[in-house]
Amino acid sequence: MQAQVDIRSWLLKQNDWLKEAADRLLKKGEIDALDVADLTALIKTPAGSKPSSHREFTELSHRHTVQDELRLIQIGGVAGI
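Now predict its structure.
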């Protein structure tokens, strides 16, 4: 949970375009071509290049549970390293 608090604190100090990108990523899970176009336009504006304070990143406050687990059991047949 501390990592989420640290990430949120860091994000709150960043420029608006980066906050917008993080907000979209947190809400949608991915950034698509339309998002890239929107963010490209935003970064070219004076407002996009300055910190803002209108985002809270509440998604970082939610507890996330691990639904799937991946474990590496063995590595074998390695050659040429």
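Residues 2-61 form one domain.
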